[in-house]
Each structure stands twice: as C-alpha cells, then as structure tokens.
Design a protein that fits this description.
169 residues, alpha/beta, 5 strands, 37% helix
Length: 169
C-alpha cells in the first residue's frame, strides 16, 4: 500500500546486487477464487516460478497488534475474526497462530505470499523483526520453522525468550 515500495525494493536489490521481480498483486485478494484465477496468468506464473527457485528469503513478521498493520487489506472486523481463530500475525501475508499453525486458517486462501511450507524449501530464510507488539507473531514464525536466521532488536528478543519460557539475563 505504500507508494514507494518499488523504490525501497529497488534500493535493496541494488545493495545486494540482486535482480528485482515485482509481484504486482494485492497482499490479500477479496475472494480466494480471484487468487486462483490470477495464479493461472503467465506473468504471475513467472514470478511464482522465481519464488519457487529462490535460495534466500528476507522477510518480516506482521502482527495484528502492531502499530502498523495493513488496514488496506484487514479491516477491524477481519482482525476480530482472526483473533478469535487465534491468529497473532503473519509471515509473507500468510497468517499464523502463536503455536506455528497456519494451514487451516481460511483467510490464507486469499493470501499471495509463500506459505511456511514453501518458505521452508528455501535454504536461507532471514526473518527481521522489531517491536514488542510482534512478539507472539515472532514466536509463531519460529514455531512454524520459517526462519534459519533471525535479526531482532534486544528488547523484542528478551520478550520472545520470556514468552517461550527461556530465562534471560
């Protein structure tokens, strides 16, 4: 939803001497059937093929409680329904619970990002997170096994360790 997302991605690609392939789709479709139809488009198939062949992924963790959530795709009623289903956040637009489960969340049929199962096929998966409101979502992401590496600020790291019951100093 940000008008400069392409510029941010271009700068990131340039910094890492990487190719950039934009995926010009909404984070969530209004209807699962719309996503199913779009997945048949040749241009979308090309990006999905690139995604399937990725050897590194860099991604963040979204939270239903974070200061910035995507109101363009999730309204208050959606957030309330998802919270009742135990959803705490998302990884690459795929919603998950703190226990790491995601496959039986109906809203995920509308998501455009790779599922945790698809992410786990990528050899190197760097998850970046900061914000105490994202702690439950970070725990869910770790339990879903989506990250091989975690880049996190110390406050959030301590809160994650406290939440999973690991003593901190």
């Amino acid at each position: 939803g940000l008008s400069y997302t392409g510029e941010i991605l271009r700068a990131l690609a340039d910094a890492f001497d990487a190719d950039l392939a934009l995926f010009p789709l909404p984070a969530f479709f209004d209807q699962p059937a719309a996503r199913d139809v779009m997945w048949q488009e040749r241009s979308v198939q090309q990006v999905l093929d690139l995604r399937a062949r990725a050897d590194i992924a860099v991604f963040g963790v979204g939270s239903l409680q974070a200061r910035t959530r995507c109101e363009v795709y999730l309204d208050d009623a959606d957030v309330a329904r998802l919270a009742l289903d135990g959803v705490v956040g998302d990884v690459c637009t795929v919603l998950l619970r703190e226990n790491g489960t995601w496959a039986d969340i109906p809203f995920n049929r509308r998501a455009t990002g790779p599922t945790p199962a698809e992410l786990r096929r990528i050899p190197r998966r760097i998850c970046v997170a900061a914000d105490a409101a994202r702690v439950a979502a970070v725990v869910g992401a770790l339990r879903a096994g989506v990250a091989t590496d975690l880049v996190i600020d110390s406050e959030t790291a301590r809160a994650v360790l406290d939440r999973i019951g690991t003593p901190t100093r």
